[in-house]
Amino acid sequence: xxxxxxxxxxxxxxxxxxxxxxxxxxxxxxxxxxxxxxxxxxxxxxxxxxxxxxxxxxxxxxxxxxxxxxxxxxxxxxxxxxxxxxxxxxxxxxxxxxxxxxxxxxxxxxxxxxxxxxxxxxxxxxxxxxxxxxxxxxxxxxxxxxxxxxxxxxxxxxxxxxxxxxxxxxxxxxxxxxxxxxxxxxxxxxxxxxxxxxxxxxxxxxxxxxxxxxxxxxxxxxxxxxxxxxxxxxxxxxxxxxxxxxxxxxxxxxxxxxxxxxxxxxxxxxxxxxxxxxxxxxxxxxxxxxxxxxxxxxxxxxxxxxxxxxxxxxxxxxxxxxxxxxxxxxxxxxxxxxxxxxxxxxxxxxxxxxxxxxxxxxxxxxxxxxxxxxxxxxxxxxxxxxxxxxxxxxxxxxxxxxxxxxxxxxxxxxxxxxxxxxxxxxxxxxxxxxxxxxxxxxxxxxxxxxxxxxxxxxxxxxxxxxxxxx
Length: 470
Prior knowledge:
Blueprint: H1 5-20, H2 25-41, H3 43-54, H4 58-84, E1 87-89, E2 98-106, E3 109-113, H5 121-132, E4 136-140, H6 146-159, E5 165-167, H7 172-179, E6 185-189, H8 192-205, E7 208-212, E8 218-221, H9 227-239, E9 251-255, H10 259-274, H11 278-283, H12 293-308, E10 312-315, E11 319-320, E12 325-326, E13 329-332, E14 349-355, H13 358-367, E15 373-377, H14 381-390, E16 395-398, E17 419-420, H15 425-431, E18 433-441, H16 456-467
Parallel strand pairs: 3-4, 3-6, 4-5, 6-7, 8-9, 8-15, 9-14, 13-14, 15-16
Antiparallel strand pairs: 1-2, 2-18, 7-17, 10-13, 11-12
């Protein structure tokens, strides 16, 4: 078989991965500090690239790309020494006289496949965890963000040698070649449909995986909610990156008694932030664009299908695929058979669903695949408790949205269809580490008291162990 560049690169990292098993906290922190310095040195280039790739305002790029990434790096640098310390474990009744600990060992050679919607933070965020855990990495970014990829290449080249961290660019064929390699761990961020292919490829080599996927994250606004606050945050969460965010509010359940007021507040918020006419919104520097024309066409088709099914367009509804533009859109009275209810929107379109009973909402959420996030705006403890107890999602957020991504002390991840495993902070460090069990016999091990030949005394002792087992 003829080897290609990915084969040679993968093989070149084998010796480095073994060497990194011996790396100290100080050495890893120096690696992370170099990565941080390389990012900050190219801050203006990052802002320019995000504008070219996604039409993002520099402030939005600062808040959604650079800030979370810099926070992740500083958090890891500050806490890495503590994370790496072996954890002592107390003995059980059956292991009296021994000592036990968990040692965090690098998994080895790792693959990170990152998406196009946040091409900096979703590429380099997992890299922070992988480097903190002492691994080598091949990073494959999306082919749809060439301008950001150039900056990512520069950052990686300034911070790491190729046999430690390398970037491999290309489309689906390149990803398929990489997935065929026996990596020790694979970290993928993207859609559930592609996540299944990644998991199937990993199974061929029994590689462990972290899958950060997506899904339709619902919002519940009950009758007690601060509606102005809810509208302000939900519209922000939906329109950031033009809705191309895996944890974006996908659709809103709003109590029938407050639905009219809430919808009007959402409409007014869009007008205030981006303009009160389509022309004004198109020319606003604060409203981003779709990643490419095909995605703009897809979101436009969802809107058109919803309207054909009988939906009411409160605002927006227009699009221009050539300009990668889809207007901020609010839909009401969307019937259950509309396609927009069946797939993740991933665009600036907010369907509103009215409800009377929270139990009815919970039943509908539970009938669908488990989402990456559930959001609620409420001032009622019962609503929070009901959602916490009776639903399942990667995260549950009360009176806020999207901010959980920047909370490095919490695990970030999905469940089933929305993901497998966790990222960020210590949880990301664990994802790229093997938790190795280590156990040592002490001078007073009790096990030898139970060696054959067995007699009545040893039988009684075994019964006591069962009785007092811990």
